[in-house]
Amino acid sequence: MDIIVNEELKAYIDPLTQDEHDALERSLLAEGCRDALVLWGNVLIDGHNRYGICSKHGIPFNTVQNTRFQSMDDVHLWMIEQHLGRRSVSDFQRGVLALRKRAIVEARHRVEQEQLRRESEGEAALAAAEAGGDADSPPWEPAPKLSKADLAREAKLSASQVTLIEKISAHAAQEVIEAVKAGAISLSAAAEVASLPAEEQRAAAQGGKSELKDAAKRVRESRRKPKPAKEFEFQDDDSAAATTDTAAVHPEVEALRQRVASLTAENQALRMELDALRARSVPTELGEHADA
Q: Which of 6, 9, 182, 277 is the most buried (most CB within 10 A)?
């Protein structure tokens, strides 16, 4: 059988890194190809890396047919399910695959609903013609969407991670996406960088891991709101004039300041009286010591 390699299917899942490919090659050379390649007719569906290595070194392999596929969407969904079940797939790849699955499922559901709508409209029109009147169009439900929780469960991720991956996939430059895949930047930092213009994203990615982190930090800092001034902060004479407008807007603040100033003055007066009493008592005590 002549096996056909569909380049679109081969590229549908992210390729192995060079280290991963080398490890697979060593394993196949040492142990042979134990897992069968999956075909749909003559088209190779699963096992592209094994097929390439086996063909290169003349390693025997087996094939198995999957007869359940009815369309390329079926093939894509099957490939997604297979890779979501593998531990070697990164979090970002899991999120991307889950989002692809949602797009396929929702598109397929819309097509099915449209077919049902047309069939129902045809039946309704026929019934109306036979009855000599018009029939009301039935209400149509919108195509259901997979929730973030559903996607997270599919990909073994949190809902917040799915949100980040969705933002990165939609807005990040390819250079930033490659950095995420390589582990040079976290999902949260990549989502921050993805909010920048494409040219700034590329420049940050070219600067490497450190520049990407700095870019993400700049985005976060630009979104922070300045902290409000403390209303009850005591001020010295030089800064008191600057609070005149604030006091006018907040009279209760000014009233509190005046109360504090009054209590401070009373406290100072009491200290002065106490110092005076202590001063008057000193001569008496000295006289008593002299008589003794």
A: 9
